[in-house]
Amino acid sequence: MTDLRTALAWVAEGTALCRKAVAAFDEASYGAPSLLPGWSRKHVAAHLAGNAEALGNLVHWARTGERTPMYGSPEQRGAGIESGARLPADRLTAWFERSAQALHDAMTELTEAQWRAEVVTAQGRTVPASDIPWLRAREVMVHAVDLDADVRFTHLPEDFLAALRDDIGARRGAGTPAVLGPPAEVTAYLAGRPHRGVTTVGGSPAEPLPPWL
């Protein structure tokens, strides 16, 4: 697993990429399609804001010992995204900023012992709180690309991309195809995003994969 300091740096970098993107969106451009099927850029921003609050629940759990799930239910998560996607541009951007800053501040306050506390993710996995920055780094880095505002996988740190490939491979398991191509494009392919120049080991074009995250 990625060390805590590195993961926190990736959170900061990914948040900055998302912040730059949403700050440039007016109402029309915010409502344009993202790279995720069926989601506008507003959906992606609302998801990011809701995810920051949900991970903040896990930070609270680690700090206090009070069981605080990320979401009340999958339905609650989905409803929050849809509701956020209907917000005016300025209010949605403000929510993104507020939630990202709150998560940053909360993580900053955790002690070494609290980082070792066990929490449960939305997928039901029990993990140490020190995994929270990695969970957030994945979201802000990958969704910075999904916002379709001139950020591509080629712009993301190479060490992050390597960690993401390992993570996707571990989660997809035996069904993960062996692929060849530029590292950033292979990562995009494994994440189910637009990619170029990726083939299977036998040299055939890689079959599309569903979006991951």
From TrEMBL:
Residues 13-147 form the Mycothiol-dependent maleylpyruvate isomerase metal-binding domain. InterPro entries: DinB/YfiT-like, Maleyloyr_isom, MDMPI_metal-binding, SCP2_sterol-bd_dom_sf. SUPFAM superfamilies: DinB/YfiT-like putative metalloenzymes, SCP-like. Pfam families: MDMPI_N. GO terms for molecular function: isomerase activity. Keywords: Isomerase. The keyword Nucleus does not apply. This is Maleylpyruvate isomerase family mycothiol-dependent enzyme. It comes from Streptomyces gottesmaniae.
